[in-house]
Amino acid sequence: MRLIQNMCTIAEYPAPGSAAAAECWPGAAGRRLVKIAVVGASGVGKTALVVRFLTKRFIGDYERNAGNLYTRQVQIEGETLAIQVQDTPGIQVHENGLGCSEQLNRCIRWADAVVMVFSITDHQSYELIGQLHQHVQQLHPGTRLPVVVVANKADLLHVKQVDPQLGLQLASMLGCSFYEVSVSENYNDVYSAFHVLCKEVSHKQQPSGTPEKRRSSLIPRPKSPNMQDLKRRFKQALSAKVRTVTSV
Ligand SMILES: Nc1nc2c(ncn2[C@@H]2O[C@H](COP(=O)(O)OP(=O)(O)OP(=O)(O)O)[C@@H](O)[C@H]2O)c(=O)[nH]1
């Protein structure tokens, strides 16, 4: 993991725009920031996915994940965005539900978007996704957090436990995008999954006063029953009456 540059833990990472951030991450200053957490069961390939996205390389073996934060810049619709990707420790399932540590909950709260990974070779990792999605939404009450569901290890068809079609169905039921990938064999699908997520966040973050909004404020408001006109006519009628009365 030391191969990756610009790596800090979430607690250590300096605020964007600060002098420390510029030192740790030159080029990020002034950019819009997208924060992504990658979550899922242990061994599904979260670290491999993140490293593949950041370096285009697949590195077979990693130390068990302690939760690292990585940084990179991406071009989304002509704009360069700064993105932070938080790799997280694998989630265990206990009898009484998900075993989410406080560290993991902090990462999820921190994130603007989440990548939920399962492995097609591990049915339990797939079963966890529904509960995990519910948990994520509970940690972001009142907002629909962009989520992409990723079915990894598509190259291991001979030991498949989950039909990718099930992943697609689950994702559409949850209202998420879905990608079936092989981190070990294909970079493009990995890139697309992150790219789509960044795009979704970027659209959500669009500041007020964007062309859409400005245009709508220029459109003349439809006139409600014309009060000015009504008042004018009322005054006219009144003065006509007054005239009639005085002439009598
Ligand atoms: N064949 C194959 N192996 C993969 C793929 N992605 C990851 N692996 C392997 O799966 C194992 C687990 O990968 P990790 O990236 O460490 O998984 P993780 O989800 O980060 O695991 P934890 O740190 O325990 O949570 C490693 O041996 C990887 O090389 C894939 O697409 N195909």
Task: Please give the radius of gyration in angstroms.
Answer: 27 Å
Quick one: how many beta strands? 8
Share of residues in strands:
15-25%
Counted by DSSP, the helix tally is: 8
User: Any ligands, ions or cofactors bound here, and which?
Assistant: guanosine-5'-triphosphate
Please mark out the parts with pLDDT under 50 across 5 or more consecutive residues, or reply none.
1-12, 212-225, 244-248
Strand count, sense and closure of the main sheet? 6 strands, mixed
Query: Average pLDDT value?
Result: 80
Family: Belongs to the small GTPase superfamily. Ras family.
Keywords: GTP-binding, Hydrolase, Nucleotide-binding
Catalytic activity: GTP + H2O = GDP + phosphate + H(+)
GO biological process, one term: negative regulation of transforming growth factor beta receptor signaling pathway
Question: How is the topology of this model organized?
Answer:
Layout: H1 19-24, E1 33-40, H2 46-55, E2 69-76, E3 79-87, E4 92-94, E5 97-99, H3 102-110, E6 113-119, H4 123-139, E7 147-152, H5 164-174, E8 177-180, H6 187-205, H7 211-218, H8 227-247
Parallel strand pairs: 1-3, 1-6, 6-7, 7-8
Antiparallel strand pairs: 2-3, 4-5
The protein binds guanosine-5'-triphosphate.
Guanosine-5'-triphosphate (GTP) is lined by residues 42-48, 60-62, 64-65, 89-90, 152-153, 155-156, 182-184.
